[in-house]
C-alpha cells in the first residue's frame, strides 16, 4: 500500500498526490511518474473486461470482452479536479501536462450497432490508443476521443471535443475541435488560422 493510502501501482514514485474522493482500479496496470498531483474526483480505470459482471441481465446473455489495458502518466503532471481516464488498450500522458477540471479521456467507445439492445450492454469498439505529449495544456470540460494524439505543447480550449490528432504547438477549440492558432517560431508568437487555412498576425494570448 502507498504511504498515502494509494494502491500499489506498476512502479514506485516520489511526490505522488491523488486527493479524495478518487476511484482507481487495477493499479498494477498504471504507471505514474514523480511529482504528480491529481485533484479530487479523479478516476483512473483500466478496463480488463466489459461489460462488468454487475451488468449481467437475466433476459439476455452478454459475452464479456477481455482487454489488456495500460495507463502511463509521466512526471510533473497536474489535474485540478475530476480527471477521468478509461482505458481498454493504451493511454499515455507525457511529462509536464496540465489538466484543468472535468477532463474525460477514453481510448474506446460504447457500441451502438444495435438499436434494440441498451448501449451499456453492447461491445466497446473503435478502440485506439491515446497519447498526450509533453507540456500540453488541456482546458476545462474537454473530451478526448479514441485514437487522438496531441503533439507537444498543444493547448485545448475549454468545452472542446477532440476527435482528431493535432500537431505540436497548436491551439485547438470547439466541438469537434479545430486548430485556431499555431506557433510561429520565426515571429516568436502564435499566429491565427483562418477558415481558408492561411495564417495571419500574432495572436493575443489574453483572447484565447
Characterization of this structure:
The chain has 208 residues and is an all-beta fold. The chain has one domain: Hexapeptide repeat proteins (UDP N-Acetylglucosamine Acyltransferase, domain 1), CATH 2.160.10. Helix content is 0%, strand content 37%. The protein has no helices and 25 strands. The strands form 5 sheets. It has a 10-stranded mixed beta sheet, with no helix packed on it. Strands 2-5-10-13-18-21 form a 6-stranded parallel beta sheet, with no helix packed on it. A 5-stranded parallel beta sheet has the order 3-8-11-16-19, with no helix packed on it. β23 and β24 form a beta hairpin. 28% of the residues are buried. The mean pLDDT is 91.
Q: Which features would summarize this protein structure in a list?
A:
single chain, mainly beta, six-stranded parallel β-sheet, 37% strand, 25 strands, 208 residues
Secondary structure blueprint with pairings:
Layout lengths: L16 E2 L3 E3 L5 E3 L4 E2 L3 E5 L2 E2 L14 E2 L3 E4 L4 E2 L4 E4 L2 E4 L4 E2 L4 E3 L2 E2 L13 E2 L4 E3 L4 E2 L4 E2 L4 E2 L4 E2 L4 E2 L7 E5 L2 E8 L4 E5 L5 E4 L6
Parallel strand pairs: 1-4, 2-5, 3-8, 4-9, 5-10, 8-11, 9-12, 10-13, 11-16, 12-17, 13-18, 16-19, 17-20, 18-21, 20-22
Antiparallel strand pairs: 6-7, 14-15, 22-23, 23-24, 24-25
Amino acid at each position: 500500500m502507498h504511504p498515502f493510502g494509494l494502491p500499489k501501482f506498476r512502479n514506485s514514485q516520489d511526490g505522488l498526490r491523488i486527493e479524495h474522493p478518487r476511484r482507481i482500479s487495477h493499479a498494477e496496470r498504471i504507471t505514474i511518474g514523480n511529482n504528480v498531483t491529481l485533484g479530487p474526483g479523479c478516476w483512473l480505470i483500466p478496463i480488463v473486461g466489459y461489460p462488468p459482471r454487475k451488468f449481467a441481465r437475466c433476459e439476455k446473455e452478454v459475452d464479456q470482452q477481455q482487454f489488456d489495458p495500460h495507463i502511463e502518466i509521466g512526471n510533473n503532471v497536474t489535474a485540478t479536479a475530476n480527471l477521468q481516464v478509461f482505458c481498454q488498450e493504451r493511454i499515455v500522458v507525457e511529462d509536464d501536462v496540465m489538466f484543468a477540471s472535468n477532463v474525460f479521456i477514453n481510448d474506446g467507445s460504447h457500441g451502438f450497432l444495435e438499436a434494440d439492445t441498451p448501449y451499456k450492454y453492447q461491445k466497446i469498439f473503435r478502440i485506439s490508443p491515446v497519447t498526450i505529449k509533453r507540456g500540453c495544456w488541456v482546458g476545462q470540460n474537454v473530451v478526448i476521443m479514441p485514437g487522438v494524439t496531441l503533439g507537444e505543447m498543444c493547448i485545448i480550449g475549454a468545452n472542446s471535443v477532440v476527435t482528431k490528432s493535432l500537431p505540436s504547438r497548436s491551439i485547438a477549440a470547439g466541438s469537434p475541435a479545430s486548430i485556431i492558432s499555431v506557433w510561429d517560431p520565426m515571429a516568436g508568437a502564435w499566429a491565427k488560422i483562418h477558415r481558408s487555412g492561411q495564417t495571419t498576425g500574432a495572436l493575443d494570448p489574453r483572447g484565447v
